[in-house]
Amino acid sequence: MIETEASEETIAEFFGSLNTIHFLTELCVERTYLGIQECEALGNLLTNSESKLEMLQICEAQLDDERMICLGNALSVNKTLKYLDLHLNNDSISLEGWQGLSQCLRNPDTALETLRFSDSTDADDEEATDKVAAMVRALEGNSTLKNLNIGCTSYGYDINITENWVWELFNRVLCDKTSIINTYASKHTLHSFMISGSHWYVQFDKGKYSEVRESIMYSMNVNLNDDKAEVAREKILKHHFAGESAEKFTVFASMPESVLAHAIAWIGRDKLGHSLMYEFVRTFPHLLSTRIVPDDAAGKKRKR
User: Fold this and answer.
1) pTM of the predicted protein model
2) Are residues 217 and 272 in the same domain?
3) Strand 299-303 and strand 291-296: pairing?
4) Alpha-carbon separation of residue 72 from 28, 44, 106, 117, 150 (angstroms)
């Protein structure tokens, strides 16, 4: 739909008719006004259990907070959409609208892999930062998104996120180092992140090196691996078992023998764990020692 000038009722009826077309996989709406009635009809299409829609593009549309929330609510239960592109040319989207749209990332059944969203809000750095942070927070628990391109631009200028707490939040979402279980539950799919057309690391701390910046880049690079179990494993090994201290192995010391065998195998699965396995053997040699016990009626027995 490009530059459609039909009435609200007609456009809403058109969206309603798409509910019967179960082979539809792509929908593009460009330079077409969408009121709340049309958004509700589009929402009905997105929530239709028979829908096969995988790609939705809405470009240069006049959407406000109410309509963004309406779309966000529909996307919060959609199970098919993989690509969503919302490029708005109005300045009426506030933080509330961004938070409403972010519900698509909190959907436990989402299939969304790419999200591109921007508006032309004339926002100060603080408001723009809060908007980006709302999207980053919504990534917690999301297990599908691979590419995120977001931002609000004013007169063609990209926003500048100068608050380091946002990057610290982003770093924690990608790899929560507070515990092994939190690292395992971190975001292991996202590997591409842009803000209004600029790579995030161009804006980060004005290009200066930082530990947070390095950690984010490491996590997104590791996330390129399609085997997410291995992604989680690499992050756990790096952040919880690196260094020379034997204290890092205390988690293994309390394991029952039936579990410990699998844990040892998990450590030495590939070359990534070789040095860790060496340190583990040095720390707990008694767990891998061999001794011969006296003969009995059944003959010699060897215990490891």
Assistant:
1) 0.80
2) no
3) antiparallel
4) 17, 12, 10, 12, 15
